[in-house]
């Protein structure tokens, strides 16, 4: 079967995990019972033998059409064949236990012969389950977990594969479900399909009532991004994963393949800011509680990322039996970057806490204690080199953006004292803030070249510098920043999309090969245009960026402008956050970029 591209996929989810479904009706990625669990369907980064669940017409498909039901995460795929038309409705009802997938097949026109194929392989596509017949379907168990497969269609076994052959007829609905359970418990009976559909539909409709109708022509694409961010939230703890996938490559055939199924503090704070200003304060409160638990003990040991339950240990290893997406090996589980020192994270955290107060979120004594510890830690470590926002796997450096975010730590702490009466050492903090500013202007800005540089020892450019005016360090209309943005656009842009930094001969990040353009950075450049008064040009650029998502409105981490295809893990929270903020920047007078840096 032809291999799908990243943009061929949609997602469904239940706030515990998500499944990736191709336009051809195949679920090719599923981790149960949570985002970071071992996958039981892993065809996405392997082969058919590593697990998939496909429902499709037997005859050739003339046309594929997909859409989400409005303001939901319910995916509808329509197949048109010579014999007729049929739709498959996929969803995962958000419930507190037993994650489940429901697949409803409804005939539209004509009579279409259909086939269902299911290969379940636990432990990332390597373990064949113990299959037993049960009332209404099959039980598939391996180790600690199992799946209860049910259908109103007869299920058969063939060569360690479950199959079903049936017809899609107008007015009839065939149902399939898979429900996760602990292997030591009796497989649960499925809920009635229509009741489960109504539950999922109502959940998403009610959730989206909180989205303000303020985005004009961009309302629909913004709402899809907000739903996507909610889908990437682990409901029991409030943690927000960077992406639900692992090892989707930044370059086809390359080794830049990482596991993103964890909670990066930086990405989470970006996400929360986008949600807070759009009225979703409950997510902000839950994340704050998650952070306080994760940082419990000695807050100076704060990590840049955690497991979705707050786990600190995220060892990185490779699994050799998976070939990787389009043969891009290795496939990595875990992430060694969890042990890195990234100074900018502390600035993102302090800014998030500051925005909490500005948004009227209830004050927490515990959170102020954590903030004081962060300020004290950065006071002692701001002048040390780090691995930076992009998690460079090489020697530590004095990254300019890292220093700017250290400046943000003290800037926000001072504002919290001045504007909200918090008890702190504001005079001492002002002196440190001034010292950091002097250091940046002396070492991070190259007078001869006329722009800010990636780190103190290089002349390389870095797209993270586009965030300097967005956090209030410098005005976007300042000639220094204008020249920096222009240089980034000239040297890092390819067809209106922006790379993170220079690699190869002009830059070094400790890894071989190259990568695609980074979509979040591309939106940040648009934000700079807006703040510099180039609103018309910014809107044209933004409209072009929106065309890089798939027809469902989903975006990956990166994009290949040469082959016109998505790269990196998918969907990517940071990209959708950047999209939301830029949509507001180009449509509103008090944009996020202005709001974040105003008093």
Share of residues in strands = 15-25%
Instruction: Write down the Rg.
Output: 24 Å
Oligomer: single chain
Please report the first level of CATH classification, the CATH class of the largest domain.
Answer: Mainly Alpha
- The helix count comes to 14
State the share of residues found in helices, binned by percent: 25-40%
Topology:
Elements: E1 9-13, E2 18-22, E3 26-31, E4 39-41, E5 52-57, E6 63-68, E7 75-80, E8 84-91, E9 100-110, E10 112-119, H1 122-125, E11 130-134, E12 137-142, E13 145-151, E14 156-158, E15 161-168, E16 173-182, H2 193-207, H3 219-231, E17 233-234, E18 239-240, E19 263-264, H4 265-276, H5 281-294, E20 305-306, E21 317-318, E22 332-333, H6 344-358, H7 365-381, H8 400-420, H9 426-444, E23 445-446, E24 451-452, H10 479-492, E25 493-494, E26 497-498, E27 517-518, H11 519-531, H12 535-546, E28 558-560, E29 565-567, H13 573-587, H14 592-597
Antiparallel strand pairs: 1-2, 2-3, 3-4, 3-5, 5-10, 6-7, 7-8, 8-9, 9-16, 10-15, 11-12, 12-13, 13-16, 14-15, 17-18, 19-20, 21-22, 23-24, 25-26, 27-28, 28-29
Domain Trehalase-like N-terminal: 6-149
Family: Belongs to the glycosyl hydrolase 15 family.
Pathway: Glycan degradation; trehalose degradation; D-glucose from alpha,alpha-trehalose: step 1/1
